Amino acid sequence: MPSIDELESYFGDNHEIMYLREKREVFYEDGKKEDVDIYVYKKDIKNEPHIYIATGDWRVFLLNR
Question: Where does the Gamma-glutamylcyclotransferase AIG2-like domain start and stop, copy by copy (predicted)?
Answer without folding.
Answer: 2-59
